[in-house]
């Protein structure tokens, strides 16, 4: 056996326990030098450890394969969407060339309609020419010879397949109720299935050909440890703000955050299994060789392992939702410090872990130092505007935009907000002047102002910050005595999946709850900017018939001042269906399912509807499940949830 197969400091202890001579210079197949009894006991352990080392390599190949699958799915979808847009541009261009007058009328044929019957009050609304255009299509198809009672046609196999696909998609879209008592919010069924599949992969690699006997307890503990370190790079990759997964799959770090948390929980369990297993090795083997528990725990390798175990368990405990909500600042600080401490301890704990620890540490340092503290960081002065409710502050800054004129600087130069940002992206805000504790704290906020356009010389950046405990409360109190403050901005970050989904849809619904308008407002303008866009083939302008409904649910009437009447009126002038129900503090929650469902029912079943919601968990769940019901009915609906809570 090679001495590297076991921890070097554990070798003499294990040899003594098995009554075997020193293994320092004994080759793997020289088992004949041991007594028959020792060889019989020792060889399965050696074989099991070597199998673990080989078997874990296939885990990395599986992860690479999964990444390739998601990459193909993402870019295949983008290619199909691009082809669909090209067909739409071509069709609209032909219609305009044939009948320009008709196209002009279609672009101005919307009329104002009162939708008070939807169960909510609204400031205004704009719908297509007819409240239900599909009824018109049915009437045109019928004539006097059409029988009143149509014969029931047998369902075609293709129809059955579509219905089955709709039911499956609806089931995956549905989000269950929170877990009672602990009020734990659950993700959608699709996300849960993905997590369960990932958990199944971990269980497979933990127990495949792992003997579950006391005599082979060391092999089981070794498998848990090697699977733990094999997951380290993946854990840090999911948490990194700057990572290649976003480019390949379209999923940015906030979309992967749920996988990052579940993986962290799995790794804490693996660390616990490894620790319990090693204690079992001491109890079943080493204590009979005269090794006391104190002696065992004071071995350098064991002490380092205990330290790493404690560090990762503390990371888990401080990452719990209840802890984050109460002590968010402590969560941020402890998360960074404990990560570094844990990696250092694992590095010195065992030589076999160093390759994985090195990769994880490189990911962490590149993300933190090369990007977040250099190319993504900018410092500026911003104005502070206290709103009518006295609990909200609007942070505003006008930024001169800088554009790189060569490819090298574009790829490797600074990538901060002075280069502009995209819709739904967010930044991490630091305000050092608030207090000493805020010097190193960075808090995420969605950029609430529309993204800049090509050719703009400057951009207006706005953040809507609601007073909570800690940083946001300190900032609101500071704003009551100061009208400006120096800030550090780290970013921008975020995914464009919601934007792309809405742009690929025929009609869109955007629902915001409270400060979720920071996501919804730029989204609405992003969709409006696509109207009247040019054909990518010949540059001719086309008429976009896309209809947009914007629903904003506020707790208090004063919250409408976050945007102001002028901005809301501008949306109406652009043809947006604007629905603002009465404040929930006075009238309760509106019937979102009816508001969204009745509006979508106005369009042809073949129309592709995109729905985005950003707000509290309860509102997001209502919107998601309303869309699931429509999907089950055969409607072509896609939904994205932009969760603004961290």
TrEMBL record:
GO terms for biological process: copper ion import; intracellular iron ion homeostasis; iron ion transport. Belongs to the ferric reductase (FRE) family. Pfam families: FAD_binding_8, Ferric_reduct, NAD_binding_6. The chain crosses the membrane at residues 57-77, 190-208, 214-238, 266-285, 291-315, 327-348. GO terms for cellular component: plasma membrane. Keywords: Electron transport, Glycoprotein, Ion transport, Membrane, Oxidoreductase, Transmembrane, Transmembrane helix, Transport. This is FAD-binding FR-type domain-containing protein. It is found in: Membrane. Gene3D superfamilies: Nucleotide-binding domain of ferredoxin-NADP reductase (FNR) module. It is a multi-pass membrane protein. One of its GO terms (molecular function) is ferric-chelate reductase activity. Coiled coil: none annotated. The keyword Transport applies. Residues 388-499 form the FAD-binding FR-type domain.
């Amino acid at each position: 056996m090679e001495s590297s197969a076991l921890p070097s400091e554990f070798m003499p202890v294990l040899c003594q326990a098995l009554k075997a001579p020193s293994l320092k210079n004994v080759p793997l197949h020289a088992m004949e030098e041991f007594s028959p009894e020792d060889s019989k006991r020792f060889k399965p352990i050696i074989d099991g450890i070597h199998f673990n080392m080989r078997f874990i390599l296939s885990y990395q190949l599986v992860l690479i394969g999964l990444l390739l699958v998601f990459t193909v799915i993402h870019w295949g979808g983008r290619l199909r969407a691009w082809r669909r847009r090209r067909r739409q541009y071509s069709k609209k261009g032909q219609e305009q060339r044939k009948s320009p007058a008709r196209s002009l009328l279609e672009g101005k044929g919307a009329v104002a309609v009162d939708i008070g019957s939807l169960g909510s009050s609204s400031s205004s609304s704009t719908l297509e020419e007819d409240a239900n255009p599909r009824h018109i299509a049915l009437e045109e198809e019928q004539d006097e010879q059409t029988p009143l009672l149509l014969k029931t046609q047998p369902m075609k196999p293709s129809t059955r397949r579509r219905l089955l696909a709709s039911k499956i998609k609806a089931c995956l879209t549905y989000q269950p109720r929170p877990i009672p008592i602990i009020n734990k919010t659950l993700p959608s069924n699709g996300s849960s299935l993905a997590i369960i599949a990932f958990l199944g992969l971990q269980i497979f690699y933990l127990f495949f050909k792992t003997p579950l006997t006391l005599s082979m307890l060391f092999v089981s503990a070794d498998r848990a440890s090697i699977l733990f370190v094999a997951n380290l790079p993946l854990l840090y990759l999911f948490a990194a703000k700057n990572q290649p997964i976003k480019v390949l799959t379209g999923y940015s770090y906030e979309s992967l955050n749920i996988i990052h948390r579940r993986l962290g929980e799995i790794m804490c369990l693996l660390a616990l299994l490894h620790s319990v297993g090693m204690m079992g090795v001491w109890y079943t083997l080493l204590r009979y060789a005269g090794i006391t528990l104190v002696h065992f725990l004071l071995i350098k390798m064991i002490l380092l392992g205990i330290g790493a175990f404690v560090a990762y368990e503390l990371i888990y405990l401080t990452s719990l939702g209840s802890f984050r909500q109460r002590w968010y600042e402590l969560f941020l600080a402890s998360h960074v410090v404990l990560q570094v401490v844990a990696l250092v301890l694992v590095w010195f704990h065992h030589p076999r872990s160093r390759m994985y620890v090195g990769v994880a540490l490189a990911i962490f340092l590149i993300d933190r130092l090369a990007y977040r503290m250099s190319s993504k960081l900018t410092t500026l002065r911003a104005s502070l505007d206290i709103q009518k409710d006295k609990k909200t502050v609007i942070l505003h800054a006008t930024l001169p935009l800088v554009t790189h004129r060569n490819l090298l600087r574009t790829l490797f130069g600074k990538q901060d907000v002075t280069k502009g940002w995209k819709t739904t992206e967010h930044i991490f805000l630091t305000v050092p002047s608030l207090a000493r504790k805020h010097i190193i704290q960075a808090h995420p906020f969605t950029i609430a102002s529309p993204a800049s356009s090509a050719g703009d010389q400057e951009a207006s950046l706005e953040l809507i910050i609601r007073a909570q405990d800690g940083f946001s409360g300190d900032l609101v109190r500071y704003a009551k005595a100061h009208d400006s403050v120096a800030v550090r901005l780290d970013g921008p970050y975020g995914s464009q999946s919601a934007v792309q989904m809405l742009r690929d849809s025929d009609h869109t619904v955007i629902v915001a709850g409270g400060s979720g308008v920071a996501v919804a407002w730029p989204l609405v303008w992003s969709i409006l900017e696509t109207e009247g866009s040019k054909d990518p083939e010949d540059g001719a302008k086309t008429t976009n018939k896309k209809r947009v409904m914007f629903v904003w649910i506020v707790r208090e009437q004063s919250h409408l001042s976050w945007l102001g009447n002028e901005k809301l009126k501008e949306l109406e002038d652009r043809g947006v269906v604007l629905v603002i129900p009465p404040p929930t503090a006075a009238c309760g929650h509106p019937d979102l399912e009816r508001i969204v469902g009745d509006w979508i029912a106005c369009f042809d079943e073949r129309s592709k509807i995109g729905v985005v919601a950003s707000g509290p968990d309860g509102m997001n769940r209502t919107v998601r499940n309303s869309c699931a019901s429509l999907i089950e009915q055969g409607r072509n609906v896609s939904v994205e949830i932009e969760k603004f809570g961290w």
